[in-house]
Specification:
This protein is mainly alpha-helical. About 70% of the residues lie in helices and about 0% in strands. The chain has 2 domains: about 70 residues, no CATH class; about 110 residues, Arc Repressor Mutant, subunit A (Orthogonal Bundle). The chain contains 9 helices and no strands. Helix 2 packs across helix 3 and helix 7 packs across helix 9. Keywords: DNA-binding, Sigma factor, Transcription, Transcription regulation. Pfam families: Sigma70_r2, Sigma70_r4_2. It comes from Comamonas sediminis.
Length: about 190
């Protein structure tokens, strides 16, 4: 089990650390959460461990470790006003609310096939990490940690309006990032 654990650690540690750093305020806390997750792997019963399910197991444990830390950390209300001080809507839409030429999202040819592509997930990961910290936390808690809106609001100390605003902005920015860094690249000769 120790050699399997060592191989799994080498394979997944960096991805787990990037994921944890997105949600936790310091690198040290992220490293602690990853270390706690890897410790859980070592304590696991060999007979019940399926190495083919290592990613699901590790990220499931890591999600719980992150959620526990966030619940403890963000009990006090946070100021999210600065997350909404951008002019994203003016950049994306004209006065009538239509997409500005050149930034409208491209039609996705076959999303299921593209989602299975490892390179696509690398671009998604890069795009999520380019988001401002607050919308990135809200978006990834919803989409990656499978948290409900009420739980996210409670954990981060934000209102429902703040939650929906962060989700909207994160989706718009991810759509633009994916358009420029993935879909537009596929059409290039």
């Amino acid at each position: 089990m120790h050699t399997i654990a060592a191989d799994i650690t080498v394979q997944w540690r960096q991805a787990m650390l990037r994921f944890a750093m997105l949600h936790l305020p310091s690198r040290e806390e992220a490293e602690d959460a990853v270390q706690d997750t890897l410790t859980a792997l070592l304590l696991l019963d060999r007979a019940s461990f399926d190495a083919t399910q290592a990613k699901s197991y590790l990220f499931g444990i890591l999600r719980n470790k992150i959620n526990d830390r966030l619940r403890q950390k963000y009990r006090a209300p946070l100021n999210y006003a600065e997350a909404f001080n951008d002019d994203l809507d003016q950049v994306l839409f004209d006065k009538r609310g239509h997409w500005v030429d050149g930034v409208a999202p491209a039609t996705w040819v076959n999303p299921q096939q593209q989602l299975q592509n490892d390179q696509f997930f690398l671009v998604v990961d890069l795009c999520v990490h380019k988001l401002p910290a607050k919308p990135a936390r809200v978006f990834s808690m919803k989409e990656f940690l499978d948290c409900e809106a009420d739980e996210i609001c409670s954990t981060l100390g934000i209102t429902k309006a703040d939650y929906w605003q962060c989700m909207s902005r994160a989706r718009k920015q991810l759509q633009l990032c994916l358009h420029h860094n993935w879909f537009e690249q596929e059409r290039a000769p």
